[in-house]
């Protein structure tokens, strides 16, 4: 998409999604005020995929079998999940700096490090390390599946949430649902030098030329 291309080409590594409940907006919740800080350039969204049956997919499946001893079905498509120390560190630092700048009290890192020990495990290790530099801000981490349940049950316990790309995408839409939907959820894609702002509901291209 054009949006993803802009994020990658301009290195807009931080997607900031405020989810705040405003007066007059219908919601079963009260006083929700959460900010999702989503890493914007890594994870499964880097778009490195190998289609089923291609020579590249076949070669990668062979490599996995030879190096890891794991069997991957030969009719599989594959996607690469990439989490770097550099990308993790800068997004977690961004989240803590945001929290400090806006007098937020807590940062929650979400992950699935119990299963994805090297990719999400790296993100979690970096988050814990960076958190030590901000003793004035409370830090916690949660498994992403537990996080979705807690957001539905008790969203007011969360303040700033930092996440890898995929989890941040999913959880930010969930949080938008808590405060009225995507129509009232703004978004910012921020880098060190540039920023691009957007409504998170997108541009509705299916209505082009219909005067709706």
From TrEMBL:
SUPFAM superfamilies: Isocitrate/Isopropylmalate dehydrogenase-like. Pfam families: Iso_dh. Residues 1-212 form the Isopropylmalate dehydrogenase-like domain. GO terms for biological process: isocitrate metabolic process; tricarboxylic acid cycle. One of its GO terms (molecular function) is isocitrate dehydrogenase (NAD+) activity. Keywords: Oxidoreductase. Belongs to the isocitrate and isopropylmalate dehydrogenases family. This is Isopropylmalate dehydrogenase-like domain-containing protein.
């Amino acid at each position: 998409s054009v949006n993803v291309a802009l994020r990658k080409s301009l290195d807009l590594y931080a997607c900031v999604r405020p989810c705040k409940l405003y007066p007059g907006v219908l919601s079963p919740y009260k006083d929700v005020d959460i900010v999702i800080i989503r890493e914007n350039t890594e994870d499964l969204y880097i778009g490195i995929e190998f289609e089923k049956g291609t020579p590249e997919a076949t070669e990668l499946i062979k490599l996995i079998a030879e190096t890891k001893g794991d069997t991957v079905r030969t009719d599989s498509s594959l996607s690469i999940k990439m989490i770097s120390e550099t990308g993790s560190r800068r997004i977690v630092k961004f989240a803590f700096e945001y929290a400090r700048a806006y007098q937020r009290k807590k940062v929650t890192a979400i992950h699935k490090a119990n299963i994805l020990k090297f990719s999400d495990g790296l993100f979690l290790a970096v988050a814990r390390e960076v958190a030590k530099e901000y003793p004035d801000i409370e830090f916690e981490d949660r498994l992403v599946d537990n996080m979705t349940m807690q957001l539905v049950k008790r969203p007011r316990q969360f303040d700033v949430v930092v996440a890898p790309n995929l989890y941040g995408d999913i959880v930010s839409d969930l949080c938008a649902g808590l405060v009225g939907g995507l129509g009232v959820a703004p978004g910012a894609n921020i880098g060190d030098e540039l920023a691009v702002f957007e409504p998170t509901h997108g541009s509705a291209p299916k209505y082009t030329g219909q005067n709706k």
